[in-house]
Specification:
Length: 63
């Protein structure tokens, strides 16, 4: 009785299809990381950039 039917335009369905296809291609080229090995190395990565601001001489941390 209370069903809602949503109209989805063809362009939106095509967009979703292309996104799924692109993700599949990307995953075939760059496989997702192994969750087990990812959990072992979960320390945050910090990169130091010096001289990024000429008015200050301290270092900036990017993560």
């Amino acid at each position: 009785m209370g069903e809602v039917i949503r109209f989805v335009p063809k362009s939106e369905r095509e967009r979703d299809h292309l996104i799924r296809e692109a993700r599949a291609i990307y995953d075939s080229i760059f496989p997702p990381a192994d969750p087990v090995s990812e959990k072992r190395n979960n320390a945050p990565v910090r990169h130091t950039v010096s001289g990024a601001n000429t008015y200050r001489s301290d270092q900036f941390f990017l993560s």
